[in-house]
Structure formats: C-alpha cells, structure tokens
Design brief:
single chain, about 240 residues, alpha/beta, Rossmann fold, 6-stranded mixed beta sheet, 3-stranded antiparallel beta sheet, 9 helices, 9 strands, about 30% helix, binds adenosine-5'-triphosphate, binds magnesium ion, ABC_transporter-like_ATP-bd, ATP binding, Metal_Ion_Import_ABC, nucleotide-binding, AAA+_ATPase
C-alpha cells in the first residue's frame, strides 16, 4: 500500500511580493527516494524551506505525517544547500554530528555515551571518522557535506530532506551517499533530495518531482520521467513568470 508522508496543498510563497512558488501541490510517498529537479531559481530550496517551516508561506497547507504542527519536524532530518551554512562557526566535526542527537534529548541535556557511539558510527559510515576532532572550517567542501550527512543519519529521522547533497562532491563520495540512502530506504526511511544531474535521476531515484515555480509532473520515474515533462520545466516559459 502506498502512503503520503508529506502533503503540500496549494502552496504560494513569495519574497518581497514576488512569487517563488505558485499554487504548488505535491505528495511525498512514504519509503520513496524522490528527486526534486528544476532549473536554477525554480523554487526547489524555497519549497524545502517551507516544508521545514523556515519560511512562512503566503498561503497553502503543509502536512508531515498528517500533522501541521512544528512537532512533526522532529521526524525530519534536513541537510541545507551548501552556500547556506556558516562554516566559520568554531566547532568540531564530532560536535556538528552530535547536534543530530539533540532532537531526541532537548538542548539542555548533554550527549551521553550512547549518543557518542551513534555519532561515531555515522561518521564511520561517511568515512569521516579520522576527522572527528577537526574544526569544521578546516574541511574541504565535500568533507563538510559528508559531515552534514552524518549528522542527518545520527538524527535517525523518518524523512530525510536534502538540498543538493551531491553538489561539488567527487564520484566516490557520490556513490557512498547513494549507497547509504538506499540502505536507509531498506530500513523504511523516506528521502526528498534536490538533484541537478538529470543523467543520474533514473539510476538514483524511484520517484521524481519536476518543478518550476509549480509542479509540472510528479510520480514514479517510470511514469513521469519523460523528455516532454523535463522540457516543460526547463525550456518553456512558465505561465506564472
Ligand atoms: N531570501 C530571498 N530573498 C529574495 N528572493 C529570494 C530569496 N531566496 C530565493 N529567492 C528567489 O526565489 C526564487 C527561487 O529561489 P530558490 O533558492 O528556491 O531556487 P532553487 O530552485 O533552489 O535554485 P538553485 O537551483 O539555484 O538552488 C529565485 O528567483 C530566487 O532569486
Ligand atoms: Mg536551491
């Protein structure tokens, strides 16, 4: 049986009264690995930030696991787009990963032995164990990305929302991340991932959302990943522009 774990109804989001998202409807299938694709400025990050309640929409409704409450976000791990993180913040790799545990503990309690064990295992999975005491500012872009993925794994969420996790990453790391995502899917997790490389959509994902301000097509790759749908979002002048 299929189940919608996220539902977005008639969403409108604007910056300075200019709409970035226009009457957008989507559902995220539980246990899917769904790609969001669309050109630069299509509103992909805006959609994700709206789901994470980091932006207040003009109108519309977003449900996570049937709930509109902020509490539902406890089950969601979010990896922001690269440029949106302040990397100069003085903190170690291990501390960043441990932050993933705070959703389970609240901010007051200190992480215990078990949290450390979980954090180290996530770092190992991302092959970043050796960097655990390094300052986050002293890592390469791809290494930082892996630390953020380790933090998301550590959170042990139901839903993983990732904004271009493969951007600027080498092919070995890319394969490692995809392998990790697929094994977490086997455990029942759901993934919503912004992805730019159209050539790998079919190989990495089972569902896709093709968008440009609104959704042009969404569903199983086998049903909606057609040249016509891709063209519509990338080449045609959208009616709402
Ligand atoms: N904070 C902001 N203030 C004003 N306009 C913004 C802001 N953030 C995004 N926008 C505009 O909203 C539109 C959608 O931006 P968004 O970042 O969601 O696109 P995107 O699909 O994630 O693009 P990319 O592929 O480049 O990451 C763009 O036209 C962008 O210029
Ligand atoms: Mg973006």
């Amino acid at each position: 049986m299929t189940e919608d774990i996220i539902k977005v109804k008639d969403l409108i989001v604007a910056y300075d009264e200019k709409p970035a998202i226009w009457h957008l409807n989507m559902t995220l299938q539980k246990n899917s690995i769904t790609a969001i694709v669309g050109p630069n400025g299509a509103g992909k990050s805006t959609l994700i930030k709206s789901i994470m309640q980091l932006i207040k929409p003009v109108s519309g409704e977003i449900q996570i696991n049937g709930s509109k409450s902020k509490k539902a976000l406890k089950d969601v791990a979010y990896v922001p787009q690269k440029g949106e993180v302040n990397w100069e913040f003085p903190t170690t790799v291990l501390d960043v990963v441990l932050m993933g545990r705070y959703v389970h503990k609240g901010w007051i309690k200190r992480p215990n032995k078990n949290d450390h064990k979980i954090a180290m295992s996530a770092l190992r999975e991302m092959k970043m164990e050796a960097f655990r005491n390094r300052q986050i500012s002293e890592l390469s872009g791809g290494q930082r990305q892996r630390v953020f993925l380790a933090r998301a794994i550590c959170q042990d969420a139901d839903i993983y929302i990732m904004d271009e996790p493969l951007q600027g990453i080498d092919i070995t790391t890319e394969k490692l991340i995809i392998k990790t995502i697929k094994s977490l899917q086997q455990e029942g997790k759901t993934f919503l991932v912004v992805h730019h490389n159209l050539d790998t959509v079919k190989e990495y994902f089972d569902h896709v959302i093709i968008m440009n301000k609104t959704i042009f097509a969404g569903g199983k790759i086998s049903e909606v990943w057609t040249e016509e749908n891709i063209d519509k979002a990338y080449n045609e002048v959208s009616a709402v522009r």
